[in-house]
Design brief:
about 300 residues, alpha/beta, 7-stranded mixed β-sheet, two-stranded antiparallel ribbon, 10 helices
Length: about 300
C-alpha cells in the first residue's frame, strides 16, 4: 500500500479514541467498527511506525512513551484538521470551543465578569474554563490559552501581555485589632504571613526599607495552593496576605480587608499574559478573537 493510500488521519482518530475511551472495545463502538478491526488497525499502525504504541499485557490500555508522544501529536493534528474544516466552512467567523486555563484569582475577578459580553459578541464560540494556579502543559491539558503571571519561560509558547497589577499586603480588621497593625518590617515577625504551597519565582515578600531591599519569608503556619484561597483566609482573619490588587479591590472597598505596610511597598508590578502554543501558522479565528477581546477589556 502506497503512502498516499494510507488514511493517516483516520488511523489517528481511532488511536485517539482508544486512548481517551480506555480500550479497543469502547473505541470500536465510538468509531462503528469491530474490536478486532480496531486492534488490527493499531497493529498495522505500529508496524508502519516501527514502534510499539500500547502495551496489551494488562486489561487497561497502557501507552508506551512513544505511544504517549504520538497521542499528543495526534490530538494536536486532529484539532488542526477540525479547525481547518471549520475555517473553510465559516470563513473569518470565530466559531468553536476555546479551552482556557487560568488562576482562580484572575478567573473570578477579571475573566468571569467579561464572559457574558464576549459570548454576546461571539455567539459561535463556547468556553471551557479551568481554574488552577498550577503551571500547566498546554499540549497535555489540551488548553488553547493559559492566563498566567510572570515571564514567559518556554520558547514553544507565545505570550500576549494583558497588563500588570500592584501587590498589596492586607489583613482583616478583626485580625489587626487582635494582633496589632504592623508598622515596621520587624513587626511582621509577630504576624502569620500566609504563603503559597507551590514554588514561585520569588519566595517570600519583597519589601523596601529606605534604600535597602528586604525579602521577608512567609511563616509555615498557613500555606495554600491558590490566590483565592489565600484571600478567603485573610478575610477570615487567619493572617496577613500579599496579593495582586485586583484580587482585593472589592474586599478593601467593603471594609473586609485593610491595606498595611504601604510605606514599605516596593511598587513591584506582576505582569499577566495570555499564553498560547506557537506552531508557526495563523491563529484560529476563535483564539484570536479571545486574545483581542482580553487585550481590550481585561482591566487589571
Amino acid at each position: 500500500m502506497s503512502r498516499q493510500d494510507i488514511n493517516r488521519s483516520g488511523e489517528m482518530e481511532v488511536f485517539v479514541r482508544a486512548v481517551e475511551l480506555g480500550g479497543f472495545s469502547a473505541a470500536a463502538t465510538a468509531c462503528k467498527m469491530t474490536p478486532s478491526a480496531v486492534s488490527k488497525l493499531i497493529t498495522r499502525l505500529e508496524a508502519r511506525l516501527g514502534t510499539r504504541l500500547v502495551n496489551r499485557s494488562t486489561r487497561k490500555l497502557q501507552l508506551t512513551p512513544e505511544g504517549s508522544a504520538f497521542y499528543q501529536r495526534s490530538v494536536s493534528i486532529l484539532a488542526d484538521i477540525s479547525e481547518a474544516e471549520r475555517y473553510a466552512s465559516s470563513g473569518e467567523r470565530a466559531t468553536g470551543p476555546i479551552r482556557i486555563n487560568t488562576s482562580g484569582s484572575f478567573g473570578n475577578h477579571i475573566l468571569a465578569p467579561l464572559v457574558p459580553q464576549f459570548l454576546a459578541e461571539h455567539p459561535g464560540i463556547t468556553l471551557d474554563i479551568t481554574l488552577t494556579d498550577k503551571i500547566v502543559d498546554l499540549m497535555e491539558e489540551r488548553a488553547d490559552v493559559a492566563i498566567r503571571a510572570g515571564p514567559l519561560k518556554s520558547s514553544s509558547l507565545i505570550a500576549r501581555k494583558l497588563g500588570g497589577a500592584r501587590k498589596l499586603i492586607v489583613g482583616a480588621p478583626g485580625y489587626l485589632a487582635t494582633h496589632g497593625v504592623p508598622e515596621t518590617i520587624a513587626d511582621l515577625e509577630n504576624h502569620c504571613r500566609i504563603g503559597f504551597s507551590y514554588s514561585r519565582a520569588i519566595q517570600g515578600w519583597p519589601l523596601q526599607d529606605g534604600a535597602e531591599a528586604v525579602n521577608v519569608p512567609v511563616t509555615p503556619g498557613v500555606q495554600v495552593s491558590d490566590g483565592e484561597a489565600m484571600r478567603h483566609l485573610a478575610v477570615a482573619g487567619a493572617g496577613l496576605a500579599r496579593l495582586a490588587d485586583f484580587t482585593l479591590r472589592e474586599d478593601i472597598t467593603a471594609g473586609r480587608l485593610a491595606v498595611v505596610m504601604e510605606d514599605f511597598n516596593p511598587g513591584d508590578i506582576e505582569d499577566f499574559y495570555a499564553v498560547y502554543l506557537g506552531q508557526g501558522g495563523p491563529l484560529p479565528a476563535r483564539v484570536r478573537a479571545l486574545l483581542d477581546f482580553l487585550a481590550t477589556h481585561a482591566k487589571l
